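Predict structure. Chain length: 780.
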Amino acid sequence: MKHLFLSRKALVMALFSTGVIGISDLSTAYADNITTSPAINVGEVNGQAPGASERNKGNKKKVDINSPVQKVHISQRNIEDNTPSGGSVVEAIAATTPGFQARRTGTSSGANRYQIRLNGIQIGFDETGQAEMNGNQVLMDGIPLNNPLASYHGFSTAELPISSMFSGINVVYGPGTAKQHWFDSMGGTIDFQTKSSGEKPAAFVDIGAGSFNAYNASTGISTGSMDGWKTYIAGGYTRTGQARVSPSLTGPSESSAIFVKTQKKYQDGKFTMGFYFNHTEENRPHLIPVYPFAGGSVNGNGVQGPALSQVTSGFYYTPSSDLWRKHEKYITYLGYLKLTTDLSKNVKFHNAVWYRAGNRLKVRVDNYPMAPKLNTEYYPTSSGNFGYRGDFTIDLPYNKIDVGGYYQQTTYDSAFAGYSSFIPGFELGSNNPLYYRDDHDHWSAASAFLQDKITPVSFISITPGLNLINYHISVNNVTSVSAEDLYPGDTLGDFPKVPGDTVNFTRLAPSVAINAAITPSLHAFGTWSQNYQTQIDSAYGEGASHPVIAPKKPAKINFLMAGLKYVHGPLEGQVSFVHQKLSDLAVQITQAESQNIIVEPANETINGVNFLLAYGQRLGFNARLLGSILHGTENTVDAAGQAVNGARVTGLPTYNINFGLGYRLYADQTLWSIRALDNYQSATYLSSDITASPTTLQLPFSAVNLVNLSLSARTTMFDHDIPGLKLMRVSLMLDNLLNRKYNVQGYVSAGGNYGAGSEGSILASPGTPRAVYASITASF
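Prediction complete.
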């Protein structure tokens, strides 16, 4: 009995002291009863750095009461609790972050891409008509992952498919302070923090499976300290089949990733070196008309058969892969070096250099329409990003000064070949294309910032800052040169001679933030900041077969957020008002048959409220209510040049609300947990390929209430049976428990996908039906 009592005490201390539960100071729960047994360092077991600073960081409350900028920290425990086995890590952000929205084009697998929004501003794939397509900066360990030129593909969530690699996520709303500005920090900045090795050797293995023939496996190994060097090695694979119903589906989506990080602390600082590789292949089913159109059947346009649409052939139906298929491949390489040095007692120097290379290939075959048309495409792209960042932090009485900057240059090569037919596997050279283009683009950014956190009295901090930004963009059409090499003598193809453009922008972006303690538990905060961003490649003539008037100004955001934060014991809350004015945006509409690129100027205004209220017991009951109420409008012009003012922002729900309930119980050497999460999203509005503008139409079946349920158990009861085992975790998650039918994305078609008679049809991507995922994790 004494041995069992000590074993239970050790587990409780391990779980609580390392922040696995995710509520700070829980280690005191059983501190009076634990006297001699050493605690299991679960943080070290799972690959987190075991030092005091990292442990305290893991125990931070989600509401950082002293920060003048609204931000959220998603802990490793939150990632585990809210990510289905093999699923995308962005599910954890959506479940814990007010104002964050994640919409997936397939199942919850990390191998599928999501569109994500922060306060209504998006990054990632959407169907059509978005004015701001790369509006959030994505980082890994503080290193930028975005391609600043690519349109829908500036960042894909499928580039980060293995959730078990991450120890936490930091989300900053808006541009943040001057020090936090990056080239795509408009709606916000999302920093994915990778795991690190502890002082002692450790490892974990995670395997899982679920609905739609999904399965996954991942592992992480900590070498421990070896002559002061600590290395963490991680790898994983995730795969999912299709949730759609079809006579013939194209295949699964699958992704793998490898990560290595080595670190060494020395007397005055810390050195870190990291390498990351990702390979993703995604097979994507076709959008489906919500309602039938004349001539459209499941067998093709004008071919006899049942009518094709969600309301006739089935909500999840998609045409056979013989009629339509799309295969996409992503490859990402990232390497970085970071150095932090204490130059003196009051001065620190932070230093980072990185290189990121990426390749993306899209192959599409479309044989659905009977009429002759451009029905296949081969679309390879590649990019390279080199960057450097350095900054100093100077601590003075009543002042904390940050000064520094970054430089990044990007090369981006984008080709496109469109055929009436081709030989699979030999697309680029199988025959002469009907349409071919090739662009070689260059982009660079240089930024210098200065900010000063002033604390005139202990209960007020004011942080003014300035960020000087220079952008250079050069889009170069080399089609005539490359076409002659690839297709000598071809007189059938259309090789556009439209030249690209070169522009240079220099802007000064100010920011100011304030935090004031009304009481020790209640703080008021406010942030005002501006930032600038270059437009996507098509705005400067990329891929255009008709001349494009390049923007004379970079995109701009004017951001204001203010509110209250409260933290007292197990209760925490936050409410904030947000105002965002985006100007000088460019709306891209691509008409696939002719490759015309329509670029229209646009402005957006998004106003609203974010809120969070959470209560967490040490054990027992816990609850949280979080969400946003946002109203977004757009001013632009349509394809006919007519003004469109006050249209609702495409794809943005007015209401996005999460309500979660949970209960935790410790018994039989096991921490048991059950949680239910209810998410409501209101209807979203559509844009039109016909008018190249937003519409007053709502996406049918886009208003939805989704319920997810999760159960987990963390236990040490098997430690004596399995050599080296320190902790075992078993989890079960039910996604869309009530099996709601809903659409996540859509647009009004100009007829390019389904041919004659389909013009004006609403095409939609349905959400995933009920799914079940299970996983088991063993830590050694």
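Summary: DSSP finds six helices and 38 strands in the chain.
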